[in-house]
């Protein structure tokens, strides 16, 4: 029998606003298990992008915002030099059936400067990736 696509979703979240928007987009769908993941990006020999304590606080606020919408969600805080690779590692460790994300806004320049995380999530994944539509823009 085929495995359920939404048996266990790993859902990356950045900050409280992103986490709330992502959870809101996800709540329209039947999902068996959800793990919200926040990756603290480490500098890999250089300075971290933000202080560790501030990054961990940002993650906790994101998890709280996600649980306001999906109270039974699991959470995972991980540290990695590459955000996308960090998400993939959590998906593998948790045996996720898919990764779901809510694409963030921003023009082409913003996407270029950020390394286009969404594109990498889709093209480099070893499991299905689901882009959630924005409910405010006519999504479910």
UniProtKB/TrEMBL annotation:
InterPro entries per record: Rossmann-like_a/b/a_fold (IPR014729), UspA (IPR006016)
UspA domain residues: 8-132
Protein name in UniProt: UspA domain protein
